[in-house]
Predict the structure.
Amino acid sequence: MSFEYIPEALSFFLWGAFILAVIFGAVVNKTNFCTMGAVSDMVNMQDYGRLRAWMLAIATAILGVTLLEYFAMVNVSDTFPPYRASQLIIGENLIGGFLFGIGMTFASGCGNKTLIRIGGGNLKSVVVFAVMGIIAYYMIMPFPGTDKTFFSVLFYDWIRPLSINLTTQQDIGAMIGGEDNAIARLLSGLVIGLALLVYVFKSLDFRRSKDNILAGLVIGAVILGGWHLSSNINIETFGETHTLSSYYDNWAMLADDNEGKPASGRTLSSQSFTFVNPVGQTYGYIKDGLDNSLLTFGLVSVFGVILGSLIWSLISRSFRFEWFHNAKDFFTHVIGGALMGFGGTLALGCTVGQGITGVSTLALGSFLTLIAIIFGSALTMKIQYYKMLHEDAGFVAALLSSLVDMKLLPASMRKLENM
Protein backbone atom coordinates (compact mmCIF):
# COMPACT_ATOMS: atom_id res chain seq x y z
CA MET A 1 0.00 0.00 0.00
CA SER A 2 1.99 2.91 -1.34
CA PHE A 3 0.99 6.58 -1.32
CA GLU A 4 2.48 9.71 -2.81
CA TYR A 5 1.42 12.02 -0.01
CA ILE A 6 1.59 11.60 3.76
CA PRO A 7 -1.99 12.87 4.45
CA GLU A 8 -3.38 10.09 2.24
CA ALA A 9 -1.25 7.47 4.00
CA LEU A 10 -2.24 8.67 7.47
CA SER A 11 -5.90 8.76 6.51
CA PHE A 12 -5.77 5.20 5.16
CA PHE A 13 -3.96 4.07 8.31
CA LEU A 14 -6.54 5.54 10.68
CA TRP A 15 -9.60 4.60 8.65
CA GLY A 16 -8.30 1.06 8.24
CA ALA A 17 -7.85 0.71 11.99
CA PHE A 18 -11.32 2.16 12.56
CA ILE A 19 -13.05 -0.25 10.16
CA LEU A 20 -11.28 -3.27 11.65
CA ALA A 21 -12.32 -2.07 15.12
CA VAL A 22 -15.97 -1.75 14.06
CA ILE A 23 -15.88 -5.39 12.89
CA PHE A 24 -14.21 -6.35 16.17
CA GLY A 25 -16.85 -4.59 18.26
CA ALA A 26 -19.81 -6.02 16.36
CA VAL A 27 -18.53 -9.60 16.47
CA VAL A 28 -17.57 -9.45 20.15
CA ASN A 29 -21.03 -8.15 21.03
CA LYS A 30 -22.82 -10.70 18.84
CA THR A 31 -20.90 -13.72 20.15
CA ASN A 32 -20.60 -12.57 23.80
CA PHE A 33 -16.83 -13.02 23.56
CA CYS A 34 -15.48 -12.02 26.96
CA THR A 35 -12.12 -12.87 28.46
CA MET A 36 -13.28 -12.24 32.03
CA GLY A 37 -16.36 -14.32 31.27
CA ALA A 38 -14.07 -17.06 30.01
CA VAL A 39 -12.22 -17.11 33.33
CA SER A 40 -15.50 -16.98 35.25
CA ASP A 41 -16.97 -19.88 33.28
CA MET A 42 -13.82 -21.90 33.91
CA VAL A 43 -13.60 -21.14 37.64
CA ASN A 44 -17.27 -21.29 38.58
CA MET A 45 -18.80 -23.75 36.13
CA GLN A 46 -15.88 -25.71 34.69
CA ASP A 47 -17.10 -24.57 31.29
CA TYR A 48 -14.19 -23.96 28.90
CA GLY A 49 -16.14 -22.82 25.83
CA ARG A 50 -15.28 -19.13 25.97
CA LEU A 51 -11.73 -19.92 27.07
CA ARG A 52 -11.37 -22.03 23.94
CA ALA A 53 -12.73 -19.13 21.87
CA TRP A 54 -10.00 -16.94 23.37
CA MET A 55 -7.40 -19.61 22.62
CA LEU A 56 -8.72 -19.90 19.05
CA ALA A 57 -8.24 -16.16 18.58
CA ILE A 58 -4.68 -16.52 19.89
CA ALA A 59 -3.98 -19.51 17.64
CA THR A 60 -5.37 -17.72 14.57
CA ALA A 61 -3.26 -14.64 15.29
CA ILE A 62 -0.10 -16.67 16.01
CA LEU A 63 -0.35 -18.77 12.86
CA GLY A 64 -1.14 -15.75 10.71
CA VAL A 65 1.66 -13.60 12.12
CA THR A 66 4.14 -16.50 11.95
CA LEU A 67 3.49 -17.13 8.26
CA LEU A 68 3.33 -13.47 7.26
CA GLU A 69 6.52 -12.67 9.16
CA TYR A 70 8.32 -15.56 7.47
CA PHE A 71 7.36 -14.12 4.07
CA ALA A 72 8.31 -10.59 5.20
CA MET A 73 4.73 -9.34 4.99
CA VAL A 74 4.48 -7.98 8.55
CA ASN A 75 6.89 -6.38 10.99
CA VAL A 76 6.40 -7.62 14.55
CA SER A 77 9.91 -6.94 15.84
CA ASP A 78 9.91 -3.13 15.88
CA THR A 79 6.47 -2.39 17.26
CA PHE A 80 4.38 -0.13 19.47
CA PRO A 81 4.40 -1.19 22.24
CA PRO A 82 7.74 -3.04 22.00
CA TYR A 83 6.55 -6.59 22.66
CA ARG A 84 9.81 -8.23 21.61
CA ALA A 85 12.19 -5.83 23.36
CA SER A 86 15.39 -7.43 24.61
CA GLN A 87 14.65 -6.16 28.12
CA LEU A 88 12.20 -8.55 29.75
CA ILE A 89 10.21 -6.39 32.21
CA ILE A 90 9.21 -9.38 34.26
CA GLY A 91 8.04 -7.34 37.26
CA GLU A 92 5.73 -5.18 35.17
CA ASN A 93 4.43 -8.18 33.23
CA LEU A 94 3.56 -10.24 36.31
CA ILE A 95 2.47 -7.52 38.74
CA GLY A 96 0.73 -5.47 36.06
CA GLY A 97 -1.05 -8.54 34.71
CA PHE A 98 -2.10 -9.59 38.21
CA LEU A 99 -3.49 -6.13 39.00
CA PHE A 100 -5.30 -6.05 35.68
CA GLY A 101 -6.85 -9.45 36.36
CA ILE A 102 -8.19 -8.25 39.71
CA GLY A 103 -9.39 -5.01 38.15
CA MET A 104 -11.30 -6.58 35.29
CA THR A 105 -13.10 -8.81 37.78
CA PHE A 106 -14.14 -5.85 39.93
CA ALA A 107 -15.14 -3.86 36.84
CA SER A 108 -17.19 -6.71 35.33
CA GLY A 109 -15.00 -6.91 32.26
CA CYS A 110 -11.65 -6.06 30.70
CA GLY A 111 -10.82 -2.93 28.70
CA ASN A 112 -12.30 -4.37 25.53
CA LYS A 113 -15.49 -5.48 27.30
CA THR A 114 -15.82 -2.00 28.81
CA LEU A 115 -16.00 -0.57 25.27
CA ILE A 116 -18.46 -3.26 24.18
CA ARG A 117 -20.74 -2.46 27.10
CA ILE A 118 -20.60 1.26 26.43
CA GLY A 119 -21.81 0.51 22.90
CA GLY A 120 -24.61 -1.54 24.44
CA GLY A 121 -25.77 1.30 26.69
CA ASN A 122 -24.06 0.34 29.95
CA LEU A 123 -23.43 3.58 31.83
CA LYS A 124 -21.42 1.79 34.53
CA SER A 125 -18.80 1.11 31.89
CA VAL A 126 -18.61 4.82 31.07
CA VAL A 127 -17.42 5.40 34.64
CA VAL A 128 -14.93 2.52 34.38
CA PHE A 129 -13.72 3.95 31.04
CA ALA A 130 -13.14 7.39 32.58
CA VAL A 131 -11.25 6.10 35.63
CA MET A 132 -9.14 3.68 33.58
CA GLY A 133 -8.36 6.38 31.01
CA ILE A 134 -7.22 8.98 33.55
CA ILE A 135 -4.99 6.47 35.37
CA ALA A 136 -3.53 5.10 32.12
CA TYR A 137 -2.83 8.61 30.82
CA TYR A 138 -1.00 9.78 33.94
CA MET A 139 0.94 6.53 34.19
CA ILE A 140 2.79 7.77 31.10
CA MET A 141 2.22 11.52 30.91
CA PRO A 142 3.36 13.99 33.62
CA PHE A 143 0.93 15.46 36.11
CA PRO A 144 0.12 19.11 35.29
CA GLY A 145 3.02 21.38 36.21
CA THR A 146 5.42 18.55 37.09
CA ASP A 147 7.67 15.97 35.44
CA LYS A 148 6.23 13.15 37.58
CA THR A 149 3.94 10.34 36.47
CA PHE A 150 2.14 7.62 38.39
CA PHE A 151 4.77 5.20 37.10
CA SER A 152 7.74 7.29 38.25
CA VAL A 153 6.22 7.98 41.67
CA LEU A 154 4.72 4.59 42.52
CA PHE A 155 6.63 1.97 40.56
CA TYR A 156 9.88 2.85 38.80
CA ASP A 157 12.38 2.66 41.67
CA TRP A 158 11.41 -0.83 42.81
CA ILE A 159 9.90 -2.54 39.78
CA ARG A 160 12.34 -1.71 37.00
CA PRO A 161 15.32 -3.41 38.79
CA LEU A 162 13.35 -6.66 38.44
CA SER A 163 13.87 -6.51 34.67
CA ILE A 164 16.19 -8.90 32.87
CA ASN A 165 18.39 -7.89 29.92
CA LEU A 166 18.48 -10.64 27.29
CA THR A 167 21.04 -11.19 24.55
CA THR A 168 18.27 -11.45 21.93
CA GLN A 169 14.77 -10.20 21.49
CA GLN A 170 12.37 -11.93 23.85
CA ASP A 171 10.25 -13.88 21.37
CA ILE A 172 10.52 -17.65 21.69
CA GLY A 173 11.96 -18.15 18.20
CA ALA A 174 14.78 -15.64 18.77
CA MET A 175 15.57 -17.07 22.20
CA ILE A 176 15.85 -20.56 20.71
CA GLY A 177 17.58 -19.86 17.41
CA GLY A 178 18.74 -16.23 17.43
CA GLU A 179 17.12 -13.10 16.02
CA ASP A 180 18.18 -13.84 12.43
CA ASN A 181 16.90 -17.42 12.50
CA ALA A 182 13.67 -17.17 10.50
CA ILE A 183 13.20 -20.94 10.59
CA ALA A 184 13.25 -21.01 14.41
CA ARG A 185 10.56 -18.33 14.51
CA LEU A 186 8.52 -20.14 11.88
CA LEU A 187 8.70 -23.52 13.60
CA SER A 188 8.03 -22.18 17.09
CA GLY A 189 4.98 -20.28 15.85
CA LEU A 190 3.61 -23.25 13.91
CA VAL A 191 4.10 -25.66 16.82
CA ILE A 192 2.45 -23.38 19.39
CA GLY A 193 -0.37 -22.31 17.06
CA LEU A 194 -1.20 -25.84 15.96
CA ALA A 195 -1.04 -27.15 19.52
CA LEU A 196 -3.59 -24.53 20.54
CA LEU A 197 -5.84 -25.55 17.64
CA VAL A 198 -5.71 -29.18 18.78
CA TYR A 199 -6.68 -28.14 22.32
CA VAL A 200 -9.49 -25.93 21.06
CA PHE A 201 -11.11 -28.33 18.62
CA LYS A 202 -10.77 -31.54 20.61
CA SER A 203 -13.91 -30.43 22.45
CA LEU A 204 -17.10 -31.64 20.76
CA ASP A 205 -19.14 -28.97 22.54
CA PHE A 206 -16.85 -26.29 21.17
CA ARG A 207 -17.04 -27.67 17.65
CA ARG A 208 -20.82 -27.32 17.89
CA SER A 209 -20.64 -23.71 19.13
CA LYS A 210 -20.90 -21.48 16.06
CA ASP A 211 -20.61 -18.25 18.06
CA ASN A 212 -17.43 -19.30 19.85
CA ILE A 213 -15.83 -20.44 16.60
CA LEU A 214 -16.89 -17.23 14.85
CA ALA A 215 -15.52 -15.12 17.69
CA GLY A 216 -12.15 -16.86 17.79
CA LEU A 217 -11.59 -16.81 14.03
CA VAL A 218 -12.75 -13.24 13.41
CA ILE A 219 -10.98 -11.70 16.41
CA GLY A 220 -7.76 -13.50 15.53
CA ALA A 221 -8.12 -12.34 11.92
CA VAL A 222 -8.77 -8.72 13.00
CA ILE A 223 -5.59 -8.78 15.12
CA LEU A 224 -3.70 -10.09 12.09
CA GLY A 225 -5.34 -7.41 9.96
CA GLY A 226 -4.06 -4.73 12.32
CA TRP A 227 -0.51 -6.06 12.03
CA HIS A 228 -0.72 -6.24 8.24
CA LEU A 229 -2.23 -2.76 7.88
CA SER A 230 0.30 -1.03 10.13
CA SER A 231 3.27 -2.87 8.59
CA ASN A 232 2.55 -2.12 4.96
CA ILE A 233 1.76 1.56 4.52
CA ASN A 234 4.53 3.31 2.58
CA ILE A 235 5.08 6.79 1.16
CA GLU A 236 6.95 7.10 -2.14
CA THR A 237 8.72 10.45 -2.21
CA PHE A 238 11.87 11.78 -3.89
CA GLY A 239 12.55 8.30 -5.28
CA GLU A 240 12.64 6.77 -1.80
CA THR A 241 10.21 4.56 0.10
CA HIS A 242 9.38 5.45 3.70
CA THR A 243 7.24 3.81 6.32
CA LEU A 244 5.01 6.08 8.38
CA SER A 245 7.46 6.10 11.28
CA SER A 246 10.54 6.74 9.09
CA TYR A 247 8.71 9.55 7.28
CA TYR A 248 7.92 11.08 10.68
CA ASP A 249 11.59 10.84 11.69
CA ASN A 250 12.56 12.72 8.51
CA TRP A 251 9.58 15.08 8.45
CA ALA A 252 11.67 18.27 8.28
CA MET A 253 13.39 17.08 5.09
CA LEU A 254 10.38 15.47 3.41
CA ALA A 255 7.44 17.74 4.25
CA ASP A 256 6.91 21.40 3.34
CA ASP A 257 5.55 22.30 6.78
CA ASN A 258 4.22 20.74 9.98
CA GLU A 259 0.58 20.77 8.92
CA GLY A 260 -0.95 17.35 9.61
CA LYS A 261 2.09 16.11 11.53
CA PRO A 262 1.14 13.56 14.23
CA ALA A 263 2.06 14.42 17.80
CA SER A 264 4.18 11.29 18.20
CA GLY A 265 6.16 9.04 15.90
CA ARG A 266 6.01 6.00 18.19
CA THR A 267 2.31 5.51 17.52
CA LEU A 268 3.03 5.14 13.78
CA SER A 269 5.04 1.96 14.26
CA SER A 270 3.76 -1.50 13.41
CA GLN A 271 1.01 -2.46 15.87
CA SER A 272 -2.32 -4.13 16.38
CA PHE A 273 -5.19 -3.90 18.84
CA THR A 274 -4.84 -3.11 22.52
CA PHE A 275 -7.18 -1.09 24.71
CA VAL A 276 -5.77 0.29 27.97
CA ASN A 277 -3.22 2.75 26.61
CA PRO A 278 -5.63 3.87 23.86
CA VAL A 279 -8.30 4.60 26.48
CA GLY A 280 -5.67 6.82 28.14
CA GLN A 281 -4.97 8.42 24.75
CA THR A 282 -8.69 9.13 24.45
CA TYR A 283 -8.63 11.04 27.73
CA GLY A 284 -5.65 13.08 26.45
CA TYR A 285 -7.42 13.73 23.15
CA ILE A 286 -10.49 15.09 24.92
CA LYS A 287 -8.43 17.04 27.48
CA ASP A 288 -6.41 18.75 24.73
CA GLY A 289 -9.43 19.92 22.77
CA LEU A 290 -9.80 17.16 20.16
CA ASP A 291 -6.47 17.96 18.53
CA ASN A 292 -6.31 15.87 15.33
CA SER A 293 -2.53 15.46 15.69
CA LEU A 294 -3.32 13.17 18.66
CA LEU A 295 -5.33 10.70 16.57
CA THR A 296 -3.69 7.28 16.62
CA PHE A 297 -4.40 3.70 15.57
CA GLY A 298 -5.34 2.89 19.17
CA LEU A 299 -7.50 5.93 19.74
CA VAL A 300 -9.65 5.46 16.64
CA SER A 301 -9.95 1.76 17.49
CA VAL A 302 -11.59 2.73 20.80
CA PHE A 303 -14.35 4.60 18.94
CA GLY A 304 -14.57 1.85 16.33
CA VAL A 305 -15.19 -0.89 18.89
CA ILE A 306 -17.86 1.20 20.62
CA LEU A 307 -19.57 1.91 17.28
CA GLY A 308 -19.42 -1.74 16.21
CA SER A 309 -20.96 -2.81 19.50
CA LEU A 310 -23.64 -0.12 19.22
CA ILE A 311 -24.55 -1.23 15.70
CA TRP A 312 -25.00 -4.84 16.78
CA SER A 313 -26.91 -3.78 19.91
CA LEU A 314 -29.38 -1.89 17.73
CA ILE A 315 -29.65 -4.69 15.17
CA SER A 316 -30.26 -7.31 17.88
CA ARG A 317 -32.43 -4.95 19.96
CA SER A 318 -30.26 -5.64 23.00
CA PHE A 319 -29.38 -1.99 23.65
CA ARG A 320 -30.40 -0.92 27.14
CA PHE A 321 -29.20 1.55 29.73
CA GLU A 322 -27.79 0.18 32.98
CA TRP A 323 -26.61 2.00 36.10
CA PHE A 324 -25.08 0.99 39.44
CA HIS A 325 -27.24 -0.95 41.87
CA ASN A 326 -25.85 0.80 44.94
CA ALA A 327 -22.82 2.66 46.32
CA LYS A 328 -20.84 -0.57 46.81
CA ASP A 329 -21.35 -1.48 43.16
CA PHE A 330 -20.14 2.01 42.17
CA PHE A 331 -16.96 1.89 44.25
CA THR A 332 -16.17 -1.69 43.20
CA HIS A 333 -16.26 -0.66 39.54
CA VAL A 334 -14.20 2.48 40.22
CA ILE A 335 -11.53 0.39 41.94
CA GLY A 336 -11.64 -2.07 39.06
CA GLY A 337 -11.15 0.70 36.52
CA ALA A 338 -8.21 2.11 38.47
CA LEU A 339 -6.52 -1.29 38.77
CA MET A 340 -6.94 -1.90 35.04
CA GLY A 341 -5.40 1.52 34.34
CA PHE A 342 -2.40 0.80 36.55
CA GLY A 343 -2.02 -2.87 35.63
CA GLY A 344 -2.67 -2.62 31.90
CA THR A 345 -0.15 0.20 31.51
CA LEU A 346 2.47 -1.58 33.62
CA ALA A 347 2.07 -4.81 31.69
CA LEU A 348 1.98 -3.04 28.28
CA GLY A 349 -1.45 -4.43 27.53
CA CYS A 350 -4.63 -6.18 28.49
CA THR A 351 -6.38 -9.46 27.70
CA VAL A 352 -6.37 -8.41 24.04
CA GLY A 353 -3.28 -6.19 23.88
CA GLN A 354 -1.01 -8.73 25.54
CA GLY A 355 -3.25 -11.80 25.62
CA ILE A 356 -3.77 -11.93 21.85
CA THR A 357 -1.79 -9.19 20.06
CA GLY A 358 1.35 -9.57 22.18
CA VAL A 359 1.17 -13.36 22.30
CA SER A 360 0.88 -13.43 18.50
CA THR A 361 4.50 -12.19 18.41
CA LEU A 362 5.48 -15.08 20.74
CA ALA A 363 6.99 -12.57 23.18
CA LEU A 364 7.79 -14.16 26.53
CA GLY A 365 6.55 -11.11 28.43
CA SER A 366 3.17 -11.42 26.74
CA PHE A 367 2.80 -15.03 27.87
CA LEU A 368 3.75 -14.03 31.42
CA THR A 369 1.21 -11.21 31.38
CA LEU A 370 -1.52 -13.51 30.07
CA ILE A 371 -0.88 -16.04 32.83
CA ALA A 372 -0.82 -13.30 35.49
CA ILE A 373 -4.10 -11.81 34.24
CA ILE A 374 -5.88 -15.17 34.33
CA PHE A 375 -4.46 -15.96 37.76
CA GLY A 376 -5.40 -12.55 39.19
CA SER A 377 -8.94 -12.82 37.88
CA ALA A 378 -9.44 -16.45 38.92
CA LEU A 379 -8.10 -15.83 42.43
CA THR A 380 -10.34 -12.80 42.87
CA MET A 381 -13.38 -14.80 41.81
CA LYS A 382 -12.51 -17.58 44.24
CA ILE A 383 -12.14 -15.12 47.12
CA GLN A 384 -15.45 -13.46 46.21
CA TYR A 385 -17.10 -16.89 46.18
CA TYR A 386 -15.88 -17.74 49.68
CA LYS A 387 -16.83 -14.32 51.01
CA MET A 388 -20.32 -14.88 49.63
CA LEU A 389 -20.63 -18.36 51.16
CA HIS A 390 -19.14 -17.37 54.52
CA GLU A 391 -20.20 -13.80 55.20
CA ASP A 392 -18.25 -13.57 58.45
CA ALA A 393 -15.05 -15.05 57.03
CA GLY A 394 -11.90 -12.93 56.96
CA PHE A 395 -9.90 -12.14 53.85
CA VAL A 396 -6.96 -14.35 54.83
CA ALA A 397 -9.19 -17.39 55.36
CA ALA A 398 -10.83 -16.82 51.97
CA LEU A 399 -7.44 -16.32 50.32
CA LEU A 400 -5.93 -19.49 51.78
CA SER A 401 -8.96 -21.57 50.87
CA SER A 402 -8.91 -20.17 47.35
CA LEU A 403 -5.25 -21.07 46.92
CA VAL A 404 -5.99 -24.59 48.14
CA ASP A 405 -8.73 -24.90 45.51
CA MET A 406 -6.23 -23.77 42.89
CA LYS A 407 -3.77 -26.48 44.00
CA LEU A 408 -1.24 -23.89 45.09
CA LEU A 409 -1.38 -24.79 48.80
CA PRO A 410 -1.82 -28.13 50.58
CA ALA A 411 -5.32 -29.13 51.65
CA SER A 412 -4.30 -28.89 55.31
CA MET A 413 -4.22 -25.09 55.00
CA ARG A 414 -7.90 -24.83 54.06
CA LYS A 415 -9.83 -22.53 56.40
CA LEU A 416 -13.27 -22.53 54.77
CA GLU A 417 -15.39 -25.33 53.33
CA ASN A 418 -16.24 -25.28 49.66
CA MET A 419 -19.96 -25.96 49.43
